[in-house]
């Protein structure tokens, strides 16, 4: 009997375990069904405009990021841009003028900034034209210009295209689409131009994204492209400056990388050059300007260098000048950061002539009678002093002198450099310039003028004076002189 009862108890336990397992399975099935019910109803609640909403929102956020990290000078008006400049830059800008140079016949002319001070001697016979080096502008030579002008020499410095206050971009027509990155860039520019909520307004008004309208504008549009010039184009600019300002024959002062860009033009137009002064001009195989353009080209590094004045000043102190002040270094940073300045300097710097043979150039027949002077730093480094000796050896007819500054000598020892240039220029025969006289007025035309004056009398004289004043104002504006705010034209890239 005991055996029978034990078997019955074991059967009852097995049945109870089976019932518990069934209850657990039923409970788990109920929970799964509860979790699956929302997933079946969720697709029915999806908004068809949600994708475009989040897409536009993401583009807008990216746009805001670039707006805050980029320079505010590029998006402001010329007047606002001018007012944000340091005081020294505003003074330099207001004392300059602009001229127009035509590089390509199918493009608009480029506005070129020029700077000069009145010499102490009226109508000086000698004129000096200074061309700046890599990542520099005429602002860097203001003290050198002032020192030279006190010694009776007319001195002019220019900002090459892409640098300083000259145009840094040109407007070109673009047709077709540029792929997904081009479309993204265009959408970014549309939001940047038309506002943060432009796309949302279009959705509310029309109920759809203005896709066809955007495609129509993308298919044919005009964009600002950073200036990208090589030695041939820079030579054209130099020739137009000399012709427009009537400088020929002129004493050329080439600093840093300026020799590599203008050497061919100088040899082909030696009749327009009275003398040549080279100041710390590197040549192949080194052929590198003092300022390293790679720090303006590498992502993240360029943002740090141009975004922090302290970092930029340290780069200048290490590579270019150990005596430059913080405010002056920051002025160079502001000019590089404005508009497409950084992109233009990088693009032009990569076009520097790397196959230039200094020995062959200096010994050519066209330059055999050209007076030359080589001014080189003796205190920068042993390697740089050796480079100066190598350049002097390649130009045996050039006068070789040294200075106590760095590779940006115009920032360190401007007075010393001015004295060496003045002594060299004054040691040469004086320049004789041809003065073009206006042709005489024919007798019958002069008679008509006299009769008109006698008929109109005083009233005509007043009207003539008023018109003459207007003509003078128009002439000044056309010549490119700066107005009270330093804005002589409406540049497309400031």
UniProtKB/TrEMBL annotation:
Renumbered residue ranges of the record's region Disordered: 1-44
Regions crossing the membrane: 51-69
Gene3D superfamilies named among the record's database cross-references: alpha/beta hydrolase (3.40.50.1820)
SUPFAM superfamilies: alpha/beta-Hydrolases
Basic residues: compositionally biased ranges: 19-35
Keyword Hydrolase among UniProt keywords: yes
Keywords: Hydrolase, Membrane, Transmembrane, Transmembrane helix
One Pfam family here: Abhydrolase_1
AB hydrolase-1 domain: residues covered: 127-288
GO biological process, one term: auxin polar transport
GO cellular component terms given for this protein: endoplasmic reticulum
Molecular function per GO: hydrolase activity
Compositional bias annotation for Acidic residues: 1-10
Protein name, as recorded: Alpha/beta hydrolase family protein
Source species of the chain: Medicago truncatula
Gene label: 11423162
